[in-house]
């Protein structure tokens, strides 16, 4: 005889099946067919049944002993200590500090799940239109391509509310190493762009083959014209190819755009500056810090470590 069971069983089914079996006035096979349960389930319920429904409630499936690979008390205390000492720390930076300070060897996602379980993250699911990115070949050598963009510095960061000036962060990122250079300006113009790229070349120590930018007026002309843009003139005189992305498609400059989002969460949400010189000083300190945060796209190397790795590989290839 084949008994067709229904799973999962609700509390009333368990209760009346056990109650009927306890009364002893119906054969077991009839009980199994009536309530659509298996004999093994019925016998398991009867071991717990004491005449009340509460005895048949589902019990916790949590294991009695912790998993041997779970986070240790020492690791959890170290994580709490780092977050308490650095309340504005990001996930990547926390992961970097743990790897350096205690030799943390767990996966990046394990740390995220632990922080979510400890209540440090509130997960909010947002609905986004599904986008399938096209294949993109990231440059493998230093200086092959830079991405450049400008970020508006929020007015809330100014400690002096009487300051009516506007401030802009110019950013350039080397696609191969993800190393960045940033510098603030009080105007968004072609002159600021040229000055910034000169500073970037001095910072990186080499001239790039290509610079990719959006279609902002600080990088190119809005309308077709016979006049050459100042930035294009500078690039041409230094043998640099200037590439423009498709209009209104910031994802084509995604590396520098993503870095701006990191700047907002790591720097500008907590920044207070009193003058332009103070802004330059604080931004320089933040630049040193941001270039030393490991990244998953670099196999958990920092941009500085990736730069040294690429330089050593190029040197080996040159010697060979």
On the 0 to 100 scale, the average pLDDT is 91
For the record, give the distance between the C-alpha atoms at the N and C termini, rounded to a whole number: 78 Å
Write the CATH architecture name of the largest domain. Answer: 2-Layer Sandwich
Global morphology: elongated
| CATH fold-type name of the largest domain | Nucleotidyltransferase, domain 5
| CATH homolog superfamily of the largest domain | Ribonuclease H-like superfamily/Ribonuclease H
Strand order of the largest sheet: 3-2-1-4-5
Rounded radius of gyration (Å): 31 Å
The proportion of strand residues reads: 5-15%
Would you list the SSEs in sequence order as H and E?
A: HHHHHHEEEHEHEHHH
Share of helical residues:
40-55%
* Total DSSP helices: 11
| Class by alpha and beta content | alpha/beta
Tell how many strands the DSSP assignment holds.
5
Q: List segments where confidence is low: pLDDT < 50 over at least 5 consecutive residues.
A: 316-320
Task: Explain this structure.
Helix content is about 40%, strand content about 10%. It is an alpha/beta fold and about 325 residues long. It has 3 domains: about 10-55; about 75-120; about 145-320, Ribonuclease H-like superfamily/Ribonuclease H (Nucleotidyltransferase, domain 5), CATH 3.30.420.10. Helix 1 packs antiparallel against helix 2 (about 30-35).
Short description:
With 320 residues, this protein is α/β, with parallel strands linked by helices.
